[in-house]
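Write out the 3D structure for:
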Amino acid sequence: MHTTTEFAVHTGDRCTAMEVAGAALRRSGHHVVSTGGTLTATTGNRLLTILLGALVHPSREFRRYELSSIVSGASTTIMLRHAGHPTAVSGGSIGASRRRTAWREVTAGLEHALQAAGVLQARTDTGPLRTH
């Protein structure tokens, strides 16, 4: 499963792209907080998800994503990544399946919003981040 999705955006529209992405996450029911150029989007109840796992209704499962922008020369990449999901651990295979479904919905929503705003150049998926 992919844990990071990168969206290439026009460098001059980096701030607009982050605003559009934040608005798209809010529309999908996430609470979005901006901290130092990074957006953190959360939804659901962490405690219920940890305690009850797959028994928690999918709309109440805790999910957290981070969205950041990386400027490299003339190109800008908006990177969406998972940021702490107890769902797959607490919910076993059911939680993992729900996590994949939610990930696909979030990435598709962001891609659509960025494309509609006219700031998206392309989208590429990358494999899991290395953890040290």
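The helical segments are 14-27, 46-52, 87-90, 92-117.
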